[in-house]
Amino acid sequence: MxxxxxxxxxxxxxxxxxNMKKYKVGYVPGVYDLFHIGHLNLFRNCKQYxxxxxxxxxxxxxxxxxxxxxxxxxFEERKEIVAAIREVDEVIAVDFSNTDKLDAWNQIHYDxxxxxxxxxxxxxxxxxxxxxxxxxxxxxxxxxxxxxxQIRTLIEKxxx
Length: 160
What we know:
Structural class: alpha/beta
Oligomer: single chain
Number of domains: 1
Helix content: 40-55%
CATH class: Alpha Beta
Number of helices: 7
CATH topology: Rossmann fold
Largest sheet: 5 strands, parallel
Mean pLDDT: 87
Order of helices and strands: HEHEHHEHEHEH
Radius of gyration: 16 Å
Strand order of the largest sheet: 3-2-1-4-5
CATH superfamily: HUPs
C-alpha cells in the first residue's frame, strides 16, 4: 500500500505561518466510503483555509459503531484513496482513542477542525472548548446532491 509521504517541511512551514492562510493546520475526519464529489469538495474547501490539511479516516470498526454497518471500501483502501488527493497533506487513522475532537486535538494540535454545516448546531460545546485551547471549528457547506448514503441505497436497491 502506498500512502502519501508526509512532507515535514510543508507542515513546519504551515506551523510557522509562512504561506499565511487563515489557519496553519487543519483537520477533517470522516469515513470517506464510496468516495464522491462531496468528499472532494470538502477537501478543496478545507485547503482554501489552511496551509496543511490532515484528514482522519475512520477505521472500519469505528465506522460500523457509528453508522451500524461496515463501509463498502475497507479502511486501508479508503486511507490510500484519501492520501492520493492533491489537497491532502497527511492521513491519520481515527479509532476509539481519537474520535473525540479534544482527543484528536491532543494528538495532532490542529488550529481548526472542519465539519459540514449540517453539524453547526451539534458541536457548539466542543467549539467553545477548542477555542479555549486556541483552536476552533469551521463549518463548511455540505454537498447535498451526493452522499455515500445515497450511493449505498442505490447499490442496495440494484442488488435486489
